[in-house]
Design a protein that fits this description.
This protein is of the alpha/beta class. The chain is built from six helices and 29 strands. A hairpin with a 2-residue loop joins strand 21 and strand 22. Helix 1 packs across helix 6, helix 3 packs parallel to helix 6 and helix 4 packs across helix 5. It binds adenosine monophosphate (AMP) and magnesium ion.
């Protein structure tokens, strides 16, 4: 009796249990986009650092409409006035200009009548009108960004406002993608009999880089035991994660498993109750993780999404984005697999506040076009017959 296949959830737990956080490094803000923050960032000082004007106008004291005030100075952004405001006076002020000493409000320029050297206020002014208080955005010492946050544009803006110039981020995982198969030709190369183009190489590199990895140029391994072992040996020595596609099934020309065993890579699992993706292999040597993904391009993309993506996130200390994916209602009936969970490529549509999952064309593991325009994976539990339209299914990310 062959042992029962492990579930997607069990496989993912084993992957995460084998994954150790990478060390941190410091990078200038200009190089920090898409990196994962390693430590919390606190505001170095109050932001804004001083009370300032929200409008172009005049710094004045509160009071009724129809006051005549003499313009005695100017406070521009970056160039505060040194004059202290007294009764009967106004100080010209720009947006972002510091509120001068003695002033308690700003009247916008469209609410005054300006003549040579003086203004008449057209509206009453209350204390604090159009004044941005010191520390309204951040207080000194506030935690502005948490470790584990992915640094996008807003996070970079907030980090700079908080006073940061260099950011402590997780080192990028070094990834080597290898494609096995005598049938594989480089992109654009003419095909001889029985040959196909290596879609997996560039696709897996793109997927890994999108998760923050830095990838060595993808390699190709022939279906030959010695060459497979040599290629894997080099990859394992120089990578945090090796992703090898194809050659992990049980055919006479599948050399990846014996080669990895010979290289001292500990097998953690082989085969998952999953369609597509059953032959998925995972192991490690030291801190280096090795994923053997099935060769069919859809299987490779699906198993990358389910197993490699969470590992790359965990290496960088990033939370799993699965939490953002909830459930959806299946739009059409789907034939179940009796023993394995199916990961269906679906498009998502909103329908009366519910999310509908629409199978994205033919689902064969060789149909690479079924990935085009797919928004997510929908998990179809194993069973007999069909899962009916309207059933609730769990969604998983399908990164691009
Ligand atoms: P394998 O897992 O090596 O048995 O391969 C399963 C199927 O995927 C076969 O039809 C292979 O030709 C195909 N295949 C394997 N590697 C690739 C690749 N890098 N790009 C496209 N198809 C592949
Ligand atoms: Mg093969």
């Amino acid at each position: 009796m062959p042992a029962a296949l492990i579930t997607i959830a069990q496989a993912r737990e084993l992957v995460l249990a084998a994954t150790q956080r990478l060390e941190h490094e410091s990078v200038p803000i200009a190089e920090a986009r898409d990196r994962v923050l390693g430590v919390d960032i606190r505001a170095a000082a109050d932001v804004p650092p001083f009370p300032c004007s929200a409008m172009d106008g005049y710094a004045v004291n509160p009071g009724p409409a129809d006051r005549a005030l003499a313009i005695v100075a100017e406070s521009r952004a970056g160039l505060p006035a040194s004059h202290t405001l007294a009764d009967g006076e106004a100080i010209r002020i720009s947006t972002g200009g510091a509120i001068p000493a003695g002033a308690a409000a700003v009247i916008p320029q469209e609410n005054v009548q300006a003549a040579d050297g003086s203004i008449v206020t057209r509206i009453p002014v209350r204390p604090g009108d159009h004044v941005r208080d010191r520390g309204e955005d951040m207080r000194a010492g506030d935690t502005v960004l948490r470790a584990g946050t992915v640094l996008g544009a807003p996070e970079l803006g907030a980090a700079v406002a908080a006073g940061a110039a260099e950011l402590t981020v997780a080192r990028r995982p070094r990834v080597q993608v290898l494609s096995t198969g005598d049938e594989l030709k480089a992109p654009g190369e003419p095909l001889g009999p029985g040959e196909i183009h290596n879609s997996n190489g560039p696709m897996l590199v793109a997927l890994a880089e999108h998760q923050g990895a830095t990838c060595a140029p993808p390699g190709r391994l022939p279906d030959d035991r010695a060459a497979t072992e040599a290629g894997l040996a080099h990859a394992i020595e120089n990578s945090d994660v090796v992703i090898v596609s194809g050659g992990v099934s049980v055919g006479p020309h599948d050399h990846v498993k014996p080669a990895l065993a010979n290289l001292g890579v500990e097998e953690i699992f082989w085969r998952v109750a999953l369609q597509p993706g059953k032959p998925t292999w995972f192991g490690r040597r030291g801190a280096t993780l090795v994923f053997g993904l099935p060769g069919n391009p859809v299987s490779a993309a699906v198993t990358f999404s389910l197993f490699v993506r969470p590992a790359l996130a965990a290496l960088q200390g990033r939370g799993d984005e699965r939490a953002l994916y909830g459930e959806a209602v299946l739009a059409t009936a789907v034939a179940r697999n009796p023993d394995r969970m199916q990961a269906l490529r679906v498009r998502l549509e909103r329908d009366n506040g519910r999310l509908r999952a629409i199978p994205n064309g033919p689902q064969g593991s060789h149909i690479v076009t079924s990935l085009l325009g797919a928004d997510a994976l929908a998990l179809i539990p194993p069973g007999q017959g069909e899962l009916e339209a309207g059933a609730t299914v769990t969604l998983e990310p399908l990164p691009r």
